[in-house]
Amino acid sequence: MLENCQRHHMVLGLTALTLVTILVLIIESRYAAEGSLARRRGQQFVIENNSTCWRHESYTVVQECHPCSEFDIVSRSLGVCIHTHYKEVLRCKSGEIVTKSCDRVALIEQRNFIKFEAMAFVLGVLSYLVSYARDRILSRRNYMRIERQLNRVQ
Question: Considering the chain, what is the average pLDDT of its residues?
């Protein structure tokens, strides 16, 4: 079926599939974000004897959400690292410093996704190049065969 399609029809179809894929990813990420917010509101993580001042007063973020060290996770020395393996350090308006558990860092997720997309793109380009080279070889063989047949006839 694909050999009967014209090149611009194939490009148009591929573009449409790409747009639908991107649309689905955007919709899925929005629903996932809404679900994680609802889940986060319902979850109560161990605060490790820290104050919960960040719940009822304003705070500033001292350290953004980052992965806990392997030692903290294995030894369970830092209670906030047990559930999500990520922590964030906050300073409340009263001056108190609090360590709290947080969800996975969005930048790490984004970086992993970009790596995956780049690898898929490279694999796609390599596949295209191999199939293009194979097509050229087969076309050349076919041309040579036809040329030999025409030379025999004359």
Answer: 81
